Amino acid sequence: MCIFLLNAVSLPPEKALAVYVQAPGHPFLFCGAVHNARPSAVLSLPWPDPAEAAEASAGAIQIVGAAAKIGVSIEDLAALPPVVDAGAEKRVERLALRVGENLFNFMQSFCGVDGSRLVVPMDILDRWFKKFQERAKRDPSYLKGFSL
Q1: Distance in angstroms (rounded) separating the CA atoms of residues 90 and 146
Q2: Residue 15 — very low, low, confident or very high, per pLDDT cuts 50/70/90?
Q3: Pairing state of beta strands 15-22 and 69-76?
Q4: What residues does the Hikeshi-like C-terminal domain cover (predicted)?
Q5: Do 74 and 95 fall into the same domain?
């Protein structure tokens, strides 16, 4: 969900526009907020796990096409939970995945096979990390390639 304050709208400095969502049969959940210092946000709307919902509604009548409720309220900024930037979380997740792939590829080049197990030297993590650091020192754009 995208929410933003229009240019003509200004909240008092200590206030925020908080957004909540409620799935049928569940309480309202805080999704995020916008305020003068952060006038726009892309918010993830949490939704119950379909398997969990099926267990909870076993024996009950399910309503097909039920709609969620979205609540918006002006609240004290200090009283709200910290706002999580979904875009930043995805970028960090992508970075972690790319670094993990780099480690895996490095380890794979030193792997041996013992039955159904892959065997790597004990110092493989130290060797990889040292190589990773040296490459990042030599080439400042090296780390930027991981976050694309």
Answers
A1: 13
A2: very high
A3: antiparallel
A4: 92-144
A5: no
Question: End of a domain among 28, 46, 79?
Answer: 79
Mean pLDDT throughout 54-78?
Answer: 70
Q: Are strands 29-34 and 69-76 parallel, antiparallel or unpaired?
A: unpaired
Q: Which of 57, 79, 101 is the last residue of a domain?
A: 79
CB 22 within 8 A of CB 28: yes
Mean pLDDT of the chain, nearest integer: 81
Query: What is the chain's length?
Result: 148
- In this structure, the answer to whether residues 25 and 68 fall within a common structural domain is yes
Structural domain span for residue 106: 86-146
pLDDT at 61 over 50: no
pTM, to two decimals = 0.50
- Given a contact cutoff of 8 angstroms between Cβ atoms, the answer to whether 11 and 5 are in contact is yes
Residue with tokens 């398997």, as numbered in its chain: 51
- Whether residue 24 is found in the same domain as residue 49: yes
